[in-house]
Write a structure and sequence with these properties.
pyridoxal phosphate; Aminotransferase_I/II_large; 19 helices; 14 strands; Aspartate Aminotransferase, domain 1; single chain; PyrdxlP-dep_Trfase_major; 536 residues; globular; seven-stranded mixed β-sheet; Aspartate Aminotransferase, domain 2; alpha/beta
């Protein structure tokens, strides 16, 4: 293709476009690098006019034209308070003076970001899967190599970089089923009922998608605890379902009361079709651990009212209080007998992100779904196939959670030492947080039986409430903003999780190292006392 005079149209078109761009920018076009008249200047001018027209055109996608369900979504854990924390961090980096030197992000359960060390064995296996050449290295233990080889054999081309089946790698689903059987004392688990997911959130969203239907008064109602983890309210908004709130009993350590479930259900029947009941155990943000009797009552209620049960059990390793024990809904359901076990539809969820692992970034998780209609099982696999497969490195990480070293293997001693260290440290911090909060005037914190958060109730004076309303803020959002601006501590207001009207809370993770946690709690104490004095 010639580039001189009389060359192909492509060369002349390129020159015309450059000329048009010059005109659009208010510059005179330069001619080609040869003598003669620029014969296409009129076309260039016409193109420039079009460019200017396009610059002034209205956007197709605006707040008014966007999907209203997406606009309705709120996710407090990464909401306005966190955006403000990010702005303050930028100001600190620029050298702008603040009453503090760092922002402490206690808003989210991100263990490694708070300094928790990874579990060595888990990282070794994922490293071996990611770079199989390391399988020849003497630096890695044989039990880690054995697991990595098995995972890689389940991958196309023996590579973690290949797609997997939409339901997940088969051998990992087998390991999940074996883990569930061990955890639940021999209750059978079928790998075909296991679905590997992108964290627990992906599984919860998928199940809700397939459950929600109808319109008007027949639209699906989803019962969720208040306070709740905002994933639920966000997913319900996005899917245009009906949120049905049932309140946990704060005066009784955030217990779940079946009479409250019945009240919420009966009231909701007037405007929707409640058919889903969500349970978070151990609780987020409230940290309660449900006892066996409570779980039996909930299962009986679901059976009686024909509700599909969702059991969010991602904190099943995080139980600290004496006398408390994690019971899976699957195990209790089985032990209640065949009338329940063969009929109640149950989806339960687990994740690599919490527990002692804290591997949030791998986005590993699974769900077990039992008593699903065979035709619906096919529909669920179809839905999951749209996203092809969960992250394969996350699947590998999930495998180590359910298939850790066992006694007699060379990595067992180090693994159990690291695991117990993390969980013992969390138990210590849970008690420390509860005790210190309860020494602050105007603050009450229930025992942190499990999970990794405190959800203290705070007294906010009427003058502060009035000022919050003047700023068009919820009172606890106003409180948390002030706390952030004056101390650098980022927590999430209780209004983002839901709470009884007239009560105020915030959620704070207990993940910071013990010494930093003590400093954080002292700062909260000093701030709260000054806040009460200012607005008394």
């Amino acid at each position: 293709c010639g580039r001189g005079p009389g060359g192909c149209r492509g060369g002349r078109t390129d020159m015309a476009l450059r000329c048009a761009a010059s005109l659009a920018a208010g510059r005179q076009p330069r001619g080609p690098r040869r003598e003669g008249t620029v014969r296409w200047s009129s076309a260039a001018k016409a193109s420039a006019v079009k460019i200017n027209d396009k610059a002034s055109r209205e956007k197709i996608l605006t707040l008014e034209s966007m999907n209203p369900q997406v606009k309705a979504v709120e996710y407090a854990v990464r909401g306005p308070i966190v955006l403000k924390a990010g702005e303050i961090e930028k100001e600190l980096r620029k050298g702008i003076k603040k009453p503090f030197t760092e922002v402490i992000k206690a808003n989210i359960g991100d263990a490694h970001a708070m300094g928790q060390r990874p579990i060595t064995f888990l990282r070794q296996v994922v490293a071996l899967c990611t770079y199989p050449n390391l399988l020849d290295s003497p630096s890695f233990p044989e039990d880690a190599k054995k697991r990595a080889r098995r995972i890689l054999q389940g991958c196309g081309g023996n590579s973690l970089g290949s797609y997997t089946a939409s339901q997940g790698i088969n051998c990992i689903r087998e390991d999940v089923a074996s883990y569930i059987e061990r955890r639940d004392g021999g209750v059978p688990a079928d790998p075909d009922n296991i679905y590997l997911t992108t964290g627990a959130s992906d599984g919860i969203s998928a199940i809700l998608k397939i459950l929600i239907s109808g319109g008007g008064k027949s639209r699906t109602g989803v019962m969720i605890p208040i306070p709740q983890y905002p994933l639920y309210s966000a997913a319900i908004s996005e899917l245009d379902a009906i949120q049905v709130n049932y309140y946990l009993d704060e005066e009784n350590c955030w217990a779940l009361n079946v009479n409250e479930l019945r009240r919420a259900l009966n009231e909701a029947k007037a405007y929707c079709n409640p058919k889903v009941l969500c349970i978070i155990n151990p609780g987020n943000p409230t940290g309660q651990v449900q006892n066996r009797k409570c779980i039996e009552d909930v299962i009986h209620f679901a059976w009686e009212e024909k509700l599909f049960l969702l059991a969010d059990e991602v904190y099943q390793d995080n139980v600290y209080s004496e006398g408390c024990q994690f019971h899976s809904f699957k195990k209790i359901l089985y032990e209640m007998g065949p009338e329940y076990y063969n009929n109640v539809e149950l989806a339960s969820f687990h994740s690599t992100s919490k527990g002692y692992m804290g591997e949030c970034g791998y986005r590993g998780g699974y769900m077990e779904v039992i008593n699903l209609h065979p035709e619906i099982k096919g529909q669920l696999v179809k839905l999951l196939s749209v996203r092809l497969c969960p992250p394969v490195s996350g699947q590998a990480a999930m495998d180590i959670v359910v298939n850790p070293p066992v006694p007699g293997e060379e990595s067992y001693a180090q693994f159990i030492k690291e695991k117990e260290s993390v969980l013992n440290n969390l138990a210590k911090k849970a008690k420390l947080t509860e005790d210190m909060f309860n020494k602050i005037p105007g603050v009450h914190c229930n025992p942190l039986q499990g999970a990794m958060y405190a959800f203290p109730r705070i007294f906010i004076p009427s003058k502060a409430i009035e000022e919050a309303e003047a700023h068009k803020m919820a009172p606890d959002m106003f409180y948390c903003m002030k706390l952030l601006e004056e101390t650098g501590i980022c927590v999430v207001p209780g209004s983002g999780f839901g709470q009884r009207e007239g009560t105020y809370h915030f959620r704070m993770t207990i993940l910071p190292p013990v010494e930093k946690l003590k400093i954080l709690l002292e700062k909260v104490k000093d701030f709260h006392i000054k806040f009460l004095e200012k607005y008394a």
